[in-house]
Amino acid sequence: MTDYPAQLGLYIDGEWISGGGRDTHRLLNPATGEGQADLPLATIADLDRALAAAERGFAEWRKVAPEARAVILNRAAALIRERAEHIARVATMEQGKPFAEAKGEVLASAGLIEFHAAEGQRVYGRVLMRPPGMRSMVLHQPVGPVAAFCAWNFPALNVVRKVAPAIAAGCSIILKPSEETPGSAVEVMRCFQDAGLPGNIAQIVFGVPDQISRHLLASPVTKKLSFTGSVPVGKALMKLAADSVMRMTMELGGHSPVLVFDDCDLQKTLDTLVAHKFRNAGQVCVSPTRFHVQQGIYDRFVEGFAERTKKMSIGNGLDAASNMGPMANSRRPDAIAAMVEDARSIGARVLAGGGPGDGGGFFYQPTVIADVPLEAKAMNDEPFGPVALIRPFATDEDAVAEANRLPYGLAAYCFTENGRRQNMLSETVEAGMIAINQVRLTWPDAPFGGVKESGFGSEDGPEGVAAHMITKAVHIA
Ligand code: NAD
């Protein structure tokens, strides 16, 4: 086929599996639209084998000392660093993002594993004050085998976000990464395998998503659901998991507001926001999306945003000149085109982009739309693409009301030099993460997660490990 550099397979009980008459899924290169590999899909028997292995694995792994788990995690991180260029190439070829972005993602994944290696050794219980002869303790124990499902937009980091905290906490995990970006997951998993992680602790399967989630979540072996993806699929999985009152972590969609006030450093704000908006072609759950700009700087903001956007260079992510790649799959450009046309038809002004890109791949131009009416579809449903939607506002109250208008609550961005206003926004904007005068939200030691319909239960930070532990109170006379 092509020079796609990953050998795809299911990883079950320490064995790489493919062939055997299993159905396959044709993997496409989003920069060309061409097939580049065939991914084997798990059968029900494969899933049952993975469940049995996860149950056995958990029984052993929970007894392993946290510092011994950390040795393996740190080795896996070192291997990921060593193989970063290779894994990044796989990620770019299957997901489309520019190689430099992919490499940054892979290195961030290694950093996250190292954080969890240490954090797994910092799980503290409590001994409570009691009269002599009485002792009360609070213990934290690993919850058990985890079933995890994640999206394609960060094909390496999303995998690590699921696997690292689970195994640091002493759990086993069966992960179904996206069928559209399997190679990055496979290559990350090989690093865990080569680092000495027993094959029944972290396993990966691919298949028909609905069939896999129904089967894994119906099993009494599974004790926790962890999902990264859209709100509708998250809700469906929560219903399945409710039958066994399973623990859950839900990282769902977002529609991040950006509140830009008259007193911001305008040029710096524009430089920062344009680069961040088009990272991963806007296919980021925390992507800045609804730009609410105060009236005094509105015209200059719109003009500066469009001007910078027109200078972006779109192309194959393996080409060093590209600073934005294609969208990840053939559904995305059509979905974005429909949203742009809808906004245009009700009076919005398209100032940059607004159409498909050149070439055979899944390209859509970086697009800037001003004066977008609130009723436009894109102002209400998550676009998940390279589209900046800009509207003016008058007062602080208007800005906060608009930020909080939607049922999403993942990330929000604010640009203002006024400290009192920064505090007010930190208090009143409904989001799991707020960035003020900069755009970075992902740090290994900080919780990552949303509120409202964007989900609950954070990943990363001490919260990531804690989400894989149960709490037990013990009272002894
Ligand atoms: P999606 O929900 O359709 O798919 C996400 C993942 O879930 C894919 O791997 C898919 O195979 C899998 N999936 C789909 N249906 C499933 C089912 N019934 N059972 C089990 N797994 C299933 O979402 P998408 O459109 O492919 O991805 C983009 C969405 O993911 C956006 O809404 C985005 O905001 C969200 N996302 C959220 C975060 C976060 O951390 N909050 C991170 C990345 C992406």
Automatic annotation (TrEMBL):
It comes from the Bacteria. One of its GO terms (biological process) is gamma-aminobutyric acid catabolic process. GO terms for molecular function: succinate-semialdehyde dehydrogenase (NAD+) activity. The keyword Oxidoreductase applies. Keywords: Oxidoreductase. InterPro entries: Ald_DH/histidinol_DH, Ald_DH_C, Ald_DH_N, Aldehyde_DH_dom, Aldehyde_DH_Superfamily. Residues 16-474 form the Aldehyde dehydrogenase domain. CDD domains: ALDH_F5_SSADH_GabD. It holds the Pfam family Aldedh. PANTHER family: SUCCINATE-SEMIALDEHYDE DEHYDROGENASE, MITOCHONDRIAL (PTHR43353:SF5). Belongs to the aldehyde dehydrogenase family. This is NAD-dependent succinate-semialdehyde dehydrogenase. It comes from Sphingomonas panacisoli.
